[in-house]
Structure formats: C-alpha cells, structure tokens
Amino acid sequence: MKKNMKADSEPEQKEEEQLPPEVAARRDLYEWIQSLMVALIICVAVFLFGVRLVDVSGSSMWPTLHDGDKMLVSDLFYKPKYGDIIVFKTDRYDPNKALVKRVIATEGQEISIDFDRGVVYIDGSPIEEDYIAELTKTKLDFIGPQKVPEGCIFVMGDNRNASTDSRRKEIGMVDERMILGKVYYVVFPLSDFGTVT
Length: 197
Fold this sequence. Notes:
By secondary structure, the chain is α+β, with helices and mostly antiparallel strands. It has one helix spanning 21-48; strands spanning 51-55, 70-74, 85-90, 94-106, 110-114, 119-122, 125-126, 146-147, 152-156, 174-175, 179-188, 194-195.
C-alpha cells in the first residue's frame, strides 16, 4: 500500500548561519546608514517639491502668529481662498523678503473698507473677522472700492493697524504666481504647535 506523500511547495529553509560579531555589527551599521539616507532623500524631495519651513518676522499677523514662529508652508495644488494665511514675495516691496498675510479677497471680488467703523466689505457685504487684533482703522494708501484683477489677491495682516499689506501701494494686489504657499502648521515653539486658521 502506497503512503500518501505531502509535497512541500517551498524548499527546506537553511538554518541562519551565525555571523562573527564584527561582520554582524558592520551589516547592522550599513542597514542603519541605508535607512537614514532613504529618509534624508525623502525629506529633501518633500521640501524641494512643495513643503518648506518659514519663520515669522515681526508682529503684523498677531494675535494669530507671533514673531519667531516657525511655520510649515506648502504650495502643492494650492488655490487661494478667503481666510487662508499665505507666504509670498513681491518685487515692488522687497524681492528678498517673504511676507506672511491673510487672503481677504480673490480675483473678481470688490473690496472696500469703512475706516471710520473699521469694517471690511467684500462685494458690498461686511466680513466677520474674529481673528484680528483690532478693527481696521489705518488707511495707508488704500482708496476704494477696488476690484481684484484676474490672477491676483488682496491681503492684510491680522494686526491691522501695524501691518504693511495690500493697502500699501508698494504691495497692492498680489500676483498669485508670487505665492510661496499656504501656512498649514506652526511647528515651533512647541507651545504654539498646531494648525493655523
């Protein structure tokens, strides 16, 4: 009588050979360096292709952001909308300096400001601004109402009466192509860590 034989689909595994301690240590070091290099390449790729750390300089975005905060900024698939906090540059003001402000109006919208009452209007309706330090009383160079041109935005700092923003002729309407990205998180100091709204 023939016995039923069970066929193994995998060959028998050889017992792992014991490596000398020096060889095992070199192998572990090589694997650790390889993992570190992969992580470094991923980090560099992420920062080169859309994510960067930017420092806040000054108090124009107080109380939302503070001088010295480090922000995580990205421009991946970004389209500006009202309320976003962005980082941008403008040649008319200082081509070497990045500015951080809040988007107040986007292309096609009309902005007007009642400086006596401190109220900002978009398309004739007052906007609710629970993020500002105080009402908008400082006119700077603003003469309104103004319509935001195609491909541009109008920005202001949350510390309205101590901010250089779209009310100044040196900045004015910001070309969307000059946006470096939207601010998503404050990552330092740890006491301020969290999302930005």
